[in-house]
Amino acid sequence: MTRNGNPWVVLAVIVGGYFMAQMDLTVLTVALPSIVADLDASVVEGLWAVNAYVLALAISLITAGRLGDLYGSRRVFAVGLGMFTLFSLVCALAQSPAQLIVARGFQGLGAALIVPQILAMIVALFPEDRRGTALGIRGSVGAGAALAGPVIGGLLVHTLDWRWVFLINIPIGLLLLILTLTLIPQVAPERKRRLDLVGVVLSAAALFLAVFALTQGEETGWAAWIWIALAGSAGTACLFVAHQRRNQGREPLLPFGVFSGRRFPLMCLAGAGVSMGMIGLTVVLSFYLQSGLGTGALVAGAVLAPASLVSMVLAPFVGRFSDRVDAKLLLLAGLVLTGGGMAWIALSMAPDASWTGLIPVMLVIGAGNSMLFTPLTAIATRGLAPAVAGSAGGVLATVLQLGAAFGSAAVSAVMQSGADTGAFTDATRSAMLIPISAIAIATALALAVQRTPPASAGKAAPKPSAHDVSHEESHRDQRDAG
């Protein structure tokens, strides 16, 4: 990737793809009743139309990130856009639940090819002293997608038909694909590369077993086979790590150079904690408001929406600010605001509480959220070689998905125990300890990372050219092989 063309124009194109991929994580939830009725599907089949996308996305991110390193981020991004758009059409034309579920899986695979390339292209296009601004815009787009998904989905289902939830992706996807091929430069590797197929199989198997078990655990009452699947995931992950260690001198799926230094591994773990905390808070509040206080889904959405809205508005400013101050300080401020807001909610939970009292604290949490993922990613990518930026993006996106899966499963298990005993409000208050603890662990990890002063504080390193990047990777491979 070179700096030919306007990087801000390129950023606009790639965050458009990011918006589509993120929005489709949530857009289908409000359309499920219509889908179930129209396709004569069961509720479980309807839910699998959602889960198939999440599962395919989660198990493919590491592989997709490495594909970008090996064959070029623009090429893989374009393939992802094409696949996402094509299978959006297939979803819209589905005549049975099975057809929709399979198409959603392929659509999720397309999204997986898109997501890691965003970070890779930002690293390649923006020097470190301007990268925070770009990451802030990406964060704002992600928050906007999470907020817009249910709104756009509900509007389309109400005014047109559930199939338009997918049809709307087609003109947008085609436009982005054309802009990608015309505006984003492509740098091909100087030598032929190959993908570590054994690593692909092992990583996909480990992630599939983990995510599938976590998403199905509550529904099955945490049956024995769920724990067997989790154990199988851990064992397969060990095999994957051993295989990658042996393969570092050749073409590994996961270059261990990504984890050199402390910043990236610490921020991966912190990111998992943040993701676990945020999804845990969302699940707990949704159940508390609707099952504990007896409000409807509309009120629950009205309470949760301000956090996403504030985060969406503030994230670009936080990104720009992170180019000027120590990103670690911004991250810590965000964690304190988020964790403090969660504690406030836990202490105020009561059977006779008013839902309106939660809105101010959700505004505080939204402000905290705006200072989480952008500084975290800025710290993680400091000093990252562009040649492995795709792998880094895949790993970071994967741990965020796993954190969300763990968070949802953990709080659901705690709340189910409360529902069984009739002490639902007490159970939701206890469940809040999980996201609060996750944020506390993320805070400890953020404290452990070295300071990350703005790159503009010193002389910025010259931007590597495409030849420099390829030569650096070639030299590293020769050194590792020796």
From TrEMBL:
It is a multi-pass membrane protein. GO terms for molecular function: transmembrane transporter activity. Residues 453-464 have a biased composition (Low complexity). It holds the Pfam family MFS_1. The keyword Secreted does not apply. The chain crosses the membrane at residues 7-35, 47-64, 76-96, 108-127, 139-158, 164-185, 197-216, 222-243, 264-289, 295-317, 329-347, 353-372, 384-411, 431-449. Residues 10-455 form the Major facilitator superfamily (MFS) profile domain. InterPro entries: EmrB-like (IPR004638), MFS (IPR011701), MFS_dom (IPR020846), MFS_trans_sf (IPR036259). SUPFAM superfamilies: MFS general substrate transporter (SSF103473). Keywords: Cell membrane, Membrane, Transmembrane, Transmembrane helix, Transport. It is found in: Cell membrane. The keyword Signal does not apply. GO terms for cellular component: plasma membrane. PROSITE patterns: MFS. Residues 465-482 have a biased composition (Basic and acidic residues). Residues 453-482 are annotated as: Disordered. This is EmrB/QacA subfamily drug resistance transporter.
